[in-house]
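Exam revision sheet. Question 4 asks you to relate a sequence to its structure. Input first:
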Amino acid sequence: MGNKNNTKKPKFKIDKIRRPVQFVLGITIYILLQAGIISLGMIVILGSFLGIIFGKVFCRWLCPIGIVMEVLLKAAPDEKARGMYQYHKLGCPIAWISGLLNRISLFTIRKNPLNKCINCNKCDEICYISNLNSSFSLYKEDHKNPADSYTCSRCYQCVEVCPVNYLEFKIRKF
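Answer key, structure tokens:
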């Protein structure tokens, strides 16, 4: 008899809404910035505020440049090339600030103590951080947690692919 908490429950597919949200909000931010309604400083403050609460969500949920990069990199021939998504952010102050806030953000990707990991490796296979750096893993205990890394931009694909709901996006336990 297995743990009944490990049964697969229907999940809300966050990636189904992330891209439309990113497109609408990213384009809105771009238009407001170009029209002079908001300033770059206001966007940095917004990104920082969101970073305190959610971590580095601005890049994958709001950034107009992020939209363009995702479209271009989606056509990339392999996963390693798609992992290059991170490198266009080297000059972005919002990415720096919100990335640093990943370790202390109110919400994080964490392990659900009620469910047991089955070591299927699906989370690490889809995580671009784990793919680029083998010292990170979402399920291996002796590895660093990618969700606390500067580069995690909260795409939540790791949470979605977990067949036993071992990973979840919840309030951080301090």
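Marking note for examiners. The chain has one domain: 12-171.
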